[in-house]
Write a structure and sequence with these properties.
The chain is α+β, with helices and mostly antiparallel strands. It is built from 33 helices and 15 strands. About 40% of the residues lie in helices and about 10% in strands. The chain is globular and about 90 Å long.
C-alpha cells in the first residue's frame, strides 16, 4: 500500500514539475533578438531621422553608446532595464500626434512597441548583424531521405518540410546536360562529351560530366565574365573622351586563374596587392590591374588630383561591394545610416589605397611593359650583369626600372615654374628659354643618373640640374640634342644622398624667349650600371638602353609610392575631397569581431591579409552567395551587393554558412570544388517545371522545390548561338575583338576611333573577348542586361523587354548565326526532308528528340515562308545573303525556321 502511495506522490510531483516548466516557458517569453526583431523596426521606422545621416534632437540609434547618451533635451531616450522611464517609449506611445514618434508617420504597431519595450527592459543590448559575425561550422540537419545526395540537400529538404513542400523529381539527362554545361562553361558541350554522357547509364556518368566541364578551358571564360562585371573591366578609360586602354591581359589573367583553380584567397591577394609580393612576377603585377580598371579623365583642363581621388574612392567602394557584399560608398559622406560603419572609418580604409603611383595621367602610368621571349632574354642578361657585380638590390632596382619605368615622375608633378607651363594644366611639362621647374622631395639616395623622356626640335639646348633650391649647387649639365621625335636621354652625375627638391633648368640662347623648346613626359632618378670600364660594360649598357626605349605593349598596374612620396590621408567633410578634416592612418572598421592580423603591414598587403583571414565574416559568404546566384538565378541572400541590415534576409542562412565554412576549410578556397558540390546536389538536378502548388506557395523558387529556370546571360546567349550554328571560334586570349555592329554607334571625336569589324573568324569569338567601350557598349549584349562597366556591378537585374526579341530576331549578327545554323541543320540531317532537318536542329541545341507538337508549327512556318520566297527573289537573296550559293527559296525559308528555333523559350532559357 505504501509503495502505491509513493508512486502516486512521484506521479503528481512529476506533473507539477512539467506544469511549472510550461508555466515558466510561457510566462517568460524568449529574449528579444536585436538583429532580427529590433533592428528591422529601427531601420524602417526610426533611423531616417535618428541615424548616421541625421541625429535629430541629438538622438542616434546607429551605435549603442550614441543611443544611450543624453540627448539635446537633457534626457536619455533609452534607459537600459527601465522602459517606463525611457523617453523613447514615452514618445512612441504618446497620444498627441505632435509629440508621438515617428513624427507625421504611421504609429508603431502594438507588437512593435511591445518588442521595443521588452528589449529595453531586458537591458537594451545591441546585437551584431548575422553577416558581421565570423563564419562557424554549422550542424548538418539529420535528415535521411532517398532524394538527398549531399549535405546541401539536407539543409534544403529541412526548409522544404518546414514550408510543407516536397522536392521535384530529377530532370531528364538531356536537360541536365545542357543546364550544367551552360552553367559551368557558358557553351554547349562537344558532341563527343554529350554522346558519352547520354550513352552512359552508370551512377558515375554525371560526375564524370562535371569533371570534364570543370577541366575545360571554356570554364575560365564563362566565370571570367562574372568577375569582369565586378572588376568594371573595359577596353576604354571612360568619361568624356573615353580613349582606348590596353588592359586585356588582366582579362586573360582572370580566365587563367579560374582555369587553374587558383585558391580564392590567393586570387584576392594578387589583385589587391600582387605588386607588393617579394620580387613580383609579371602575372602578379597584371593581377593588380583589377584596381586599374578605374576610369581616367583625359579631358584637357581637368584636375588630375580630383580624378585620382575619384579612382581611389572607386577602389574602396569596389573592394567592399565585390569582395564583401557590403554597401560602403555612402560612408564617404557620413556614417552609414543603417550599418555600424563610422564616417572616419571610410577614410582609414581608403588610406590603404591612397599611396599608389597612378595619378590620372593620359599614359596610364605606371604600367608593366611586356617583352617577347627574345627581348626578355636580353633583360635577364642585363640583370645577370648587375648581379654578377654583387649588387642584388641594384639588380632589383634595374629590373623594376626596365619592366615598369618606375620609380619615375610624371612631368605634371613639377611646380614652382618659371618660363614653363603644364600643358592643359594636367598633362605634360613645356619649358621655354631659361625655363625652371621644381620636382619636390626626390630621393637621391645613391642616385647618379636622371633619365628624361622628352621632345625637343631646337638645337643648342642645355639642361642643368640643381639640388636643394633654385640657387643650389648644379650637380649636372648636359646638352639636349634637337630631334623631331620623342627621345630618352640620361644625365649622369656623382652619387647623391638624402631627399631633396630638384630644380630642372633649360637654357638655349639661340631661341626666342617664348619659343616652345622642351616638352618633358617623365623624369626618373636611377643608377648607372655597375662595372663601367670593364670589357662587357658597353654591351650591357647598350642592351639596357635598347630595353628602356623599346616600344612594347604595356598594361596599367598598381605600384606603391616610395617612402618619400607617401601621401597623407584625411577625412573629407561631407565627402568633399577639397574639404579635409583630421588626418587618419590605415585601419579597418571596428564592427567586426576580429582585428587586423598582428603581423600585417599598414598597406595593401596587410589589407589582403585581413580580407583573406578566415575570421573575416564577409569574404567567403559573398563569393558563395555569388556562385549560388549564378547557378540558381537568385542568391541565398538576394541582394548580392548588400548583406547588411538593409539587404534581403538569407533564405537559408545555415546553408550559406555551411558552404562558406567548407570553402575556407574543407575546399581550401577552391571554387571548382565548391561549384562541383553545388551542381552535384539533388537540389540543382531537379526538374524546373512550375506546378500549380509551387506557383501558389513558392512562385520565385526561394525554397528550391524545383530546378533553376533562368534566361541565359548576354554572353551565354551569344556564345550559345555561335556554338549551335557551328561558328564559334575557340581561340583564347588577346586584344578585344569587334563582331558585327551597325554603323554610327561609335562617335569618337577626340581620336576618330571607329568600330572595324574583325575578320578571319575573330568576329565569332566568345563574348568575353568583345571590345567594350564604356560610353558605347556593344548594343546587342547591353540589350540583354550586360553591365556598362563604369563602376562595379555586383548583380545584373534581369529584364524582359521587346527590344530583346528585336535583337535576337533581327540583329545582323544573329541573322548570320541563323543562316549558318540552317546550313548546319541541313548538312547534318543528311537528307532534304524538312521534318528531319528541323528535328536535327532541335537535337543539336537541346540533345533530345523534338515532339510532334513542337515540330508541327515549325513545319508550317517553313511552308508559309517558302511560298512567299518562291514569289520574291530579292527577299530570298536578302534572307540568305546576296551572291550566296544557297540563294534558293527553300534555303531562305529554312533560315526563317532556324531563326525561330534559336529564339524558342526553351533555348533562350536555362530549363
Amino acid at each position: 500500500m505504501r509503495s502505491i502511495f509513493n508512486k502516486k506522490i512521484l506521479l503528481v510531483t512529476g506533473f507539477l514539475l512539467v506544469g511549472l516548466i510550461v508555466f515558466r516557458k510561457f510566462s517568460h517569453p524568449v529574449k528579444v533578438d536585436f538583429s532580427s526583431e529590433v533592428k528591422p523596426i529601427i531601420n524602417s521606422k526610426c533611423i531616417s531621422c535618428h541615424g548616421g545621416v541625421k541625429a535629430k534632437a541629438g538622438f542616434s540609434l546607429l551605435f549603442r553608446e550614441e543611443a544611450l547618451a543624453v540627448n539635446e533635451s537633457g534626457k536619455r531616450a533609452i534607459i537600459p532595464g527601465d522602459a517606463a522611464a525611457s523617453e523613447m517609449i514615452r514618445r512612441i506611445t504618446h497620444d498627441d500626434p505632435e509629440e508621438r514618434m515617428p513624427y507625421r508617420h504611421e504609429p508603431l504597431s502594438k507588437n512593435e512597441i511591445d518588442i521595443l519595450r521588452r528589449w529595453i527592459n531586458e537591458g537594451a543590448n545591441w546585437g551584431d548583424h548575422w553577416a558581421y559575425l565570423p563564419v562557424k561550422k554549422e550542424k548538418i540537419p539529420g535528415i535521411d531521405h532517398d532524394w538527398v545526395r549531399n549535405d546541401i540537400d539536407r539543409f534544403i529538404l529541412q526548409r522544404l518540410h518546414d514550408e510543407d513542400l516536397s522536392p521535384s523529381k530529377e530532370a531528364v539527362k538531356a536537360d541536365l546536360l545542357r543546364r550544367v554545361s551552360l552553367d559551368l562553361t557558358g557553351i554547349l558541350p562537344s558532341e563527343k562529351l554529350a554522346s558519352s554522357y547520354l550513352g552512359d547509364n552508370s551512377e558515375q556518368a554525371y560526375e564524370l560530366l562535371i569533371d570534364s566541364l570543370l577541366s575545360s578551358q571554356a570554364f575560365g571564360e564563362r566565370w571570367a565574365a562574372m568577375w569582369l562585371d565586378l572588376s568594371r573591366y573595359a577596353d576604354t578609360k571612360g568619361y568624356e573622351s573615353d580613349q582606348a586602354r590596353t588592359i586585356w591581359k588582366f582579362r586573360d589573367w582572370v580566365i587563367k586563374a579560374f582555369n587553374d583553380d587558383m585558391p580564392y584567397d590567393e586570387f584576392i591577394t594578387q589583385q589587391i596587392a600582387g605588386d607588393l609580393a617579394p620580387n613580383p612576377t609579371d602575372q602578379q603585377y597584371i593581377a593588380t590591374a583589377f584596381h586599374r580598371n578605374t576610369m581616367t579623365n583625359d579631358e584637357g583642363g581637368t584636375d588630375n588630383e580630383e580624378f585620382r581621388t575619384a579612382a581611389v574612392i572607386d577602389r574602396v567602394n569596389t573592394t567592399w561591394e565585390s569582395l564583401m557584399g557590403t554597401t560602403f560608398a555612402c560612408v564617404q559622406c557620413h556614417s552609414h545610416p543603417y550599418d555600424p560603419f563610422r564616417h572616419e572609418e571610410y577614410y582609414k580604409f581608403m588610406a590603404y589605397f591612397n599611396n599608389t603611383r597612378d595619378e590620372d595621367v593620359g599614359g596610364d602610368f605606371p604600367v608593366l611593359r611586356h617583352f617577347e621571349d627574345s627581348v626578355a632574354r636580353e633583360l635577364n642578361e642585363v640583370i645577370d650583369w648587375v648581379k654578377d657585380k654583387g649588387n642584388e638590390s641594384m639588380a632589383s632596382h634595374i629590373s623594376t626600372m626596365l619592366r615598369t619605368w618606375q620609380p619615375a615622375f610624371n612631368s605634371n608633378y613639377a611646380d614652382s615654374l618659371r618660363n614653363a607651363v603644364i600643358i592643359n594644366n594636367n598633362d605634360i611639362l613645356l619649358m621655354r628659354r631659361d625655363g625652371v621647374a621644381r620636382l619636390k622631395n626626390i630621393d637621391l639616395k645613391k642616385a647618379d643618373r636622371m633619365i628624361m623622356h622628352f621632345y625637343s626640335n631646337k638645337q643648342g639646348g642645355k639642361v642643368s640640374i640643381r639640388a636643394g633650391s633654385a640657387k643650389g649647387p648644379i650637380i649636372a649639365n648636359a646638352p639636349i640634342k634637337g630631334m623631331d621625335e620623342w627621345q630618352y636621354q640620361a644625365i649622369d652625375f656623382l652619387p647623391q644622398s638624402g631627399v631633396h627638391d630638384v630644380y630642372i633648368e633649360y637654357h638655349n640662347s639661340a631661341i626666342k624667349p617664348m619659343d616652345d623648346a622642351l616638352v618633358v613626359g617623365r623624369f626618373a632618378f636611377t643608377r648607372q650600371l655597375p662595372g663601367k670600364g670593364e670589357p662587357a660594360y658597353d654591351d650591357a649598357e647598350k642592351q639596357y638602353w635598347k630595353l628602356l626605349m623599346a616600344e612594347v605593349p604595356s598594361t596599367p598596374i598598381l605600384m606603391e609610392n616610395g617612402s618619400e612620396k607617401q601621401r597623407r590621408t584625411f577625412v573629407f567633410e561631407r565627402g568633399n575631397w577639397r574639404t579635409k578634416a583630421q588626418e587618419v592612418e590605415p585601419a579597418v572598421p571596428q564592427t567586426f569581431a576580429f582585428a587586423m592580423p598582428a603581423n600585417a603591414p599598414p598597406n595593401r598587403k596587410g589589407l589582403s591579409m585581413w580580407l583573406t583571414n578566415k575570421q573575416n565574416p564577409l569574404v567567403s559568404r559573398t563569393i558563395v552567395n555569388r556562385l549560388w546566384e549564378q547557378l540558381f538565378g537568385t542568391g541565398i541572400v538576394e541582394t548580392l551587393e548588400d548583406m547588411g541590415t538593409q539587404g534581403m534576409l538569407p533564405t537559408h542562412r545555415e546553408l550559406l554558412d555551411h558552404l562558406s565554412w567548407k570553402l575556407m576549410h574543407d575546399h581550401e578556397w577552391s571554387l571548382k570544388r565548391l561549384l562541383k558540390e553545388m551542381v552535384m546536389s539533388a537540389t540543382y538536378r531537379q526538374d524546373s517545371k512550375l506546378t500549380d502548388e509551387l506557383k501558389e506557395k513558392d512562385l520565385f523558387n526561394r525554397y528550391y522545390a524545383r530546378g533553376p529556370r533562368v534566361r541565359l546571360s548576354a554572353e551565354q546567349l551569344r556564345d550559345h548561338h555561335l556554338c549551335a550554328s557551328g561558328l564559334l571560334n575557340n581561340k583564347m586570349f588577346g586584344p578585344g575583338v569587334m563582331p558585327w555592329q551597325p554603323e554610327g554607334i561609335w562617335l569618337s571625336p577626340y581620336n576618330g576611333a571607329k568600330w572595324t569589324m574583325s575578320k578571319n573568324g575573330d568576329e565569332y569569338r566568345r563574348a568575353v573577348y568583345t571590345f567594350w567601350k564604356r560610353s558605347s557598349p556593344y548594343p546587342s549584349m547591353l540589350a540583354f542586361d550586360a553591365a556598362q562597366k563604369n563602376v562595379c556591378s555586383a548583380r545584373r537585374i534581369r529584364t524582359n523587354t521587346p527590344i530583346q526579341a528585336l535583337v535576337a530576331l533581327n540583329d545582323s549578327a544573329y541573322i548570320d548565326m541563323a543562316r549558318h545554323f540552317a546550313w548546319r541543320m541541313k548538312k547534318e540531317a543528311g537528307e532534304p526532308v524538312i521534318e528531319k532537318i528541323i528535328a536535327k536542329g532541335y537535337q543539336l541545341m537541346l540533345f533530345k528528340p523534338i515532339t510532334p507538337e513542337k515540330l508541327s508549327p515549325l513545319k508550317v512556318l517553313y511552308e508559309t515562308a517558302l511560298r512567299e520566297y518562291v514569289l520574291d527573289k530579292n527577299a530570298t537573296m536578302e534572307m540568305v545573303g546576296s551572291h550566296n550559293v544557297n540563294n534558293k527559296p527553300s534555303d531562305a525559308a529554312l533560315v526563317v525556321v532556324a531563326n525561330a528555333m534559336l529564339n524558342l523559350d526553351e533555348v533562350l532559357v536555362k530549363n
